Amino acid sequence: MFKGKSKAFKATVIGLVALVVVAIAGILGLGLMGGGTRQSAKAESTYTTAEVKEGKLTSTTLLTGTVKANEEQYVYYDSTKGELASIAVNVGDQVTAGQVLLSYDSTEAQRAYDAAVRALNKVDRQIYELSTYGVVVSETGDEQTDGEATANAQRTVDGQMRDLQDARADAADAVNKAQEALNDTSVKSTVAGTVVEVNRDVTKSATSTAQTVVHIVNSGSLVVSGEMSEYNLANIKVGQEVKMTSKVYPDKTWTGKVTYISDYPDNANGGGTSNANAGSGNTSGAKYPFKVTLTSDIGDLKQGFTVNIQVSGNQSGLMVPVGAVMTEDSTNYFVYTYDKASKKIKRVPVEVGGADGANQQITSGLKAGDIVLANPTLDLKDGQEVTVDDNATD
């Protein structure tokens, strides 16, 4: 009896052990399968490529400016010249360059000039007399004594002549200065144009602000002046063509060309700080003066009009997609070129130019025909092998 029970007990234990082993094997199997599933779920990144090609940027920058006269002259009252004697022009008069506009009382200036001329003439007479008559030497009959006297007399004449020549140079300078002062009593036009303002009621005061006496404008020569931000400065160059519109005449368009961009910010904004978000339009950074010269007829444009200026990007050169260019410090730029044979990438430093919404100009580092990754990621390494979607290659 005892032995039979023992065999039955052993059979039961063996059966239970078998079940446990099967269960453990099943659990381990599921674990292994699960591990395999997680490993295969980590999909490798697939990149697209683009060929470096010659192209042209299509960016557009909007600026504003004010229509001003390219040639104009303001004549301000100068109290140091005395009282105004006359104003020779009226509003609406057409004047030419060199024409007298106004005159100050020249009485004192004329007296000073006349005195300077008399002083110069006096020195000239002294030089003439000294050079003509010299110094009289009384001869004694003694050859040695007379020779010494003559030599001393000649030295005296030479010294007096040098002093007179110096005096004449000073007198001539005085005449020139007096002549300039006399000329300054008449103010002449420096431009040809139309007299648009005449003020005959100026007051002589050392503390008063500048008072305009005459204002002349050449209305046939207009320019558009404005200020651009430091961000626009990088993308706009002298010589670029522009289109302009005015709210006064919304159906009309004028053309022009950027003819001047200052290398220095204006005094009012030169020390400002720039907003980090350049795209927001809220900038308090430096403002750089610029000018646009009209290349079309002036038409209905008038001085003082505010115009909208559309500057179309005309930069051409090697282009890559904007997403292909990367940087780690906002200063040094690079791309990853792709070699089809080895399927490996290479990090290449580049220099960039302008950009628009789709393309980035490359000024150095690449050549036409190079293949670059169009959508690189930060985890890429130089020399790494990557998977490329050939169907998405440009």
From TrEMBL:
<dbReference type="InterPro" id="IPR006143">
    <property type="entry name" value="RND_pump_MFP"/>
</dbReference>
<feature type="domain" description="YknX-like barrel-sandwich hybrid">
    <location>
        <begin position="73"/>
        <end position="217"/>
    </location>
</feature>
<protein>
    <submittedName>
        <fullName>Membrane-fusion protein / periplasmic component of efflux system</fullName>
    </submittedName>
</protein>
<dbReference type="InterPro" id="IPR058636">
    <property type="entry name" value="Beta-barrel_YknX"/>
</dbReference>
<keyword id="KW-0472">Membrane</keyword>
<dbReference type="GO" id="GO:0030313">
    <property type="term" value="C:cell envelope"/>
</dbReference>
<dbReference type="GO" id="GO:0022857">
    <property type="term" value="F:transmembrane transporter activity"/>
</dbReference>
<feature type="domain" description="YknX-like C-terminal permuted SH3-like">
    <location>
        <begin position="318"/>
        <end position="388"/>
    </location>
</feature>
<dbReference type="Pfam" id="PF25990">
    <property type="entry name" value="Beta-barrel_YknX"/>
</dbReference>
<dbReference type="InterPro" id="IPR050465">
    <property type="entry name" value="UPF0194_transport"/>
</dbReference>
<keyword id="KW-0812">Transmembrane</keyword>
<dbReference type="Pfam" id="PF25984">
    <property type="entry name" value="BSH_YknX"/>
</dbReference>
<dbReference type="GO" id="GO:0016020">
    <property type="term" value="C:membrane"/>
</dbReference>
<keyword id="KW-0175">Coiled coil</keyword>
<feature type="domain" description="YknX-like beta-barrel">
    <location>
        <begin position="222"/>
        <end position="311"/>
    </location>
</feature>
<dbReference type="InterPro" id="IPR058639">
    <property type="entry name" value="BSH_YknX-like"/>
</dbReference>
<dbReference type="Pfam" id="PF25989">
    <property type="entry name" value="YknX_C"/>
</dbReference>
<comment type="similarity">
    <text>Belongs to the membrane fusion protein (MFP) (TC 8.A.1) family.</text>
</comment>
<keyword id="KW-1133">Transmembrane helix</keyword>
<feature type="transmembrane region" description="Helical">
    <location>
        <begin position="12"/>
        <end position="33"/>
    </location>
</feature>
<dbReference type="InterPro" id="IPR058637">
    <property type="entry name" value="YknX-like_C"/>
</dbReference>
